[in-house]
Design a protein that fits this description.
Elements: H1 16-25, H2 34-47, E1 51-55, H3 58-68, E2 76-80, H4 89-93, E3 97-101, H5 112-124, E4 131-135, H6 144-153, E5 158-161, E6 165-166, E7 169-170, E8 177-181, E9 194-198, H7 201-210, H8 234-244, H9 247-264, E10 271-273, E11 287-291, H10 299-308, E12 314-315, E13 331-332, E14 335-336, E15 339-340, H11 341-348, E16 349-352, H12 360-372
Parallel strand pairs: 2-3, 2-4, 3-13, 4-5, 5-8
Antiparallel strand pairs: 1-9, 6-7, 8-9, 10-11, 11-16, 12-16, 14-15
Helix pairs in contact: 1-8, 2-8, 3-7, 5-6
The chain binds pyridoxal-5'-phosphate.
């Protein structure tokens, strides 16, 4: 069997073990501790944001963001449709009601046009959303100026899910609250973990309180609010501190992978790379290609060809408005040729292996297999 090539797997540097060992030596194995405090500080500094709370996952961070914005039973929350279910599941945890917004073809992210239509509609119904969850898909920022301008005009707060940069600032620091995930498949990982960041320090203070079981200040256990056990462990924060030191290096490797695919498929007119817009610097989390509508080769052909070679690839996120669980909720589409943009992208897209441990030899093997799917090409 050929060596397995992963889509995106954990990649440790040489500092993680130092911080983890330190946690063991000092017996800070409990949740919280010096690594958690330092990791929060280091992330805040890196992003240029006032405060950050380290949590057990990105999903927990989204949940806490909704909590501090006061999202509750029967409230409405808008969310990108083309995303992972983790972006919208916390809306349901709060008993609120998701409304899904289509993608734009330019960045694959939330369409400002569809967002505007949805906001106008809900305003006329007299029920504006309590928040808009904007996802920065596959490592590229959404068009934040347009989205912010629309949300600001309706005074609706923005929660950003995952980051890249946008006009010299980090996506995740442009809205009211930003969410990062350190799951095993992300650019940097703590095996599992997340971070909620904001320039509103009152929000983050509140999240620290809520995510440690909402214990009031008293000698005994006193609770006047519903609490959660969502804080990151001190051992895992140690991994995160080490990982942060190699983040720039990892982004450079991800970019190299993307550029290598781009150059290799330049002469195959059926293949288009994820468009990279000039308003920011993506982190190239996953290299995404789309196949033109008339392409005789379909995404599944590529996925199955690679699978036979023990190479992992995947379709794009299946839009939330098409998911059995979520299809009953409203969706605002941006139609193109009679099909909504997110569904069209889902039908035509493939996420290629973007693992930072990938070698040049691995990349050549993947490229060779994909090129062989297009028989008219000479190679
Ligand atoms: C990974 C991911 C999440 C969830 O993060 P977890 O840490 O796995 O809970 C949320 N949204 C998007 C877009 C993601 O890619």
């Amino acid at each position: 069997m050929n060596k397995k090539i992963y889509l995106s797997s954990p990649h440790m540097g040489d500092k993680e073990k130092y911080y983890v060992d330190e946690a063991f030596k000092t017996n800070w194995i409990a949740p919280l501790g010096p690594n958690v405090d330092a990791f929060e500080k280091e992330i805040s500094e890196y992003l240029g944001v006032k405060d950050a709370a380290a949590l057990v996952s990105g999903t927990a961070a989204i949940h806490m963001a909704l909590k501090v914005l006061g999202v509750t039973y029967k409230d409405i929350v808008f969310c990108s449709s083309l995303t992972f279910a983790a972006s919208c599941n916390p809306i349901i945890y709060q008993g609120a009601y998701p409304v899904f917004i289509d993608s734009e073809a330019e960045s694959f992210n939330m369409s400002p046009l569809a967002l505007k239509t949805a906001l106008e509609d809900y305003k006329s119904k007299g029920k504006l959303p309590k928040a808009v969850i904007v996802v920065h898909l596959y490592g590229q920022s959404a068009p934040m100026d347009e989205i912010k301008e629309i949300c600001d005009s309706y005074k609706v707060p923005i929660i950003e899910d995952l980051g890249a940069t946008y006009k010299d600032k980090f996506a995740g620091t442009l809205g009211d609250l930003g969410v990062y995930s350190f799951n095993g498949n992300k650019i940097i990982t703590t095996s599992g973990g997340g971070m909620l960041v904001s320039n509103n320090t009152a929000f983050i203070d509140k999240v620290r309180f809520l995510s440690t079981q909402a214990r009031d200040k008293a000698r005994h256990y006193e609770h006047s609010e519903l609490g959660y056990n969502y804080r990151m462990s001190n051992v895992l924060a140690g991994i995160g501190r080490g990982q942060l030191k190699v983040l720039e290096e990892r982004i450079a490797q991800k970019k190299h992978i993307f550029e290598t695919y781009k150059a290799a498929f330049k002469d195959i007119s059926e293949i288009e790379m994820l468009p990279i817009l000039d308003y920011g610097k993506p982190n190239y989390w996953l290299s995404v290609i789309t196949l033109k509508k008339n392409s005789p080769v379909k995404p599944l052909d590529i996925i199955l060809t690679l699978e036979k070679e023990n190479i992992e690839s995947r379709p794009l996120w299946k839009p939330m408005h098409l998911q059995p669980y979520y299809s009953k909720y409203p969706f605002y589409s941006l139609d193109k040729d009679g099909i909504c943009t997110s569904e069209d992208l889902f039908n035509r897209g493939v996420c290629l292996p973007s693992d930072t441990k990938i070698t040049e030899e691995d990349l050549n093997r993947i490229i060779h297999r994909i090129r062989a799917c297009f028989p008219q090409i000479n190679f």
